[in-house]
Design goal:
Layout: H1 9-16, H2 20-26, H3 44-58, E1 66-70, H4 76-83, E2 89-94, H5 97-104, E3 111-115, E4 129-133, H6 146-163, E5 169-177, H7 185-198, H8 207-214, E6 218-225, H9 227-243, H10 245-252, H11 254-272, E7 276-285
Parallel strand pairs: 1-2, 1-4, 2-3, 4-5
Antiparallel strand pairs: 5-7, 6-7
Helix pairs in contact: 6-8, 7-11, 9-11, 10-11
Length: about 290
């Protein structure tokens, strides 16, 4: 069986290092690039903060000493843990050079970004809680057999188990495959386009693969599938990108903007049609 340690730094940087200024045009002001948690009247920023608060509460991370964020983006969760929830040290892992530099340029001593893969992470001491939002999709590669995907996921859960105390929690948010496998030709073309052009070296898990990989390491406390939240998030991002179209094209060029417009629209429809879903899962170490 071939071992896989997740998407390479090159693949991650191809996407996430496109341009910090480009992402700032159409993400919320905290630059949170993952599914929000919507209420009817929410703004995008309110829905993003609601998501962070939900996962922080699920991980029981408020007021603890050390928290790990696997796939920390531009650092919004790290800062919320420290500034709002009183965490003494929030450590974030990313393979994006641009994200690492953005976080490291801040002056918050309790926030630490590390440019490294979770598989290489060797903490000096355990964590009280772990969160991972939108990174799990990069832990397996398109075309890998099911057994190899599960083995890759088991490695992640084993590391988290090692780093947490008994009763410690892991909050995971990830896109998953959906049960609607009847697709139009255009949907197939769009999803393959996303695999080839947007998120290379990546693959979505089936929910069953996540649960099998976590068995004997973690109990599942709660699980939700909030596909509609991601459909709405992608639609909001597309509208914001369209509103800043001229600036976006000046930053990254016509082709990149067209690619992102297609990807965001196709993703929103795929969530609505349940070809893909959005899992929020709280695990507890036993």
């Amino acid at each position: 069986m071939t071992e896989y340690d997740g998407a390479s730094a090159t693949a991650i940087q191809l996407h996430y290092d496109l341009s910090n200024d480009f992402y700032a045009l159409w993400l919320d002001k905290l630059q949170i690039y993952s599914c929000a948690m919507w209420s009817e009247q929410d703004t995008l920023e309110q829905a993003q903060l609601a998501k962070l608060d939900y996962l922080i509460a699920g991980a029981r991370a408020a007021g603890v000493r050390r928290v790990l964020d696997v796939g920390c983006g531009w650092g919004a969760l790290l800062h919320r843990l420290v500034d709002v929830y009183g965490v003494e040290q929030a450590v974030g892992l990313t393979l994006s050079q641009a994200q690492y530099e953005h976080i490291s340029a801040g002056s918050e001593p309790a926030v630490e970004a590390r440019l490294e893969n979770w598989i290489e992470h060797q903490p000096d001491e355990p964590y009280d809680a772990i969160l991972s939002i939108g990174a799990f999709e990069h832990f397996a590669e398109y075309g890998m057999p099911r057994a190899e995907r599960i083995a890759a996921y088991q490695k992640f859960f084993a590391r988290c188990h090692e780093w947490l105390p008994t009763g410690g929690r892991l909050a995971l948010q990830t896109i998953v495959k959906g049960s609607n496998t009847k697709m139009s030709r255009q949907t197939v073309r769009d999803l393959l386009f996303i695999i080839d052009r947007i998120f290379t070296e990546s693959e979505l898990p089936w929910p069953s693969e996540i649960f099998e990989a976590s068995e004997r390491l973690f109990d599942v406390i709660t699980v939700t599938n909030d596909a509609d939240d991601y459909a709405r998030t992608c639609a909001a991002w597309r509208a914001r990108l369209d509103a800043r179209d001229t600036e976006a094209r000046a930053l990254v060029g016509d082709d990149a903007v067209a690619d992102y417009q297609r990807y965001l629209t196709a993703s929103s429809k795929a969530f609505t049609d349940r070809h893909i879903g959005l899992a929020r899962i709280i695990f507890e170490k036993r």
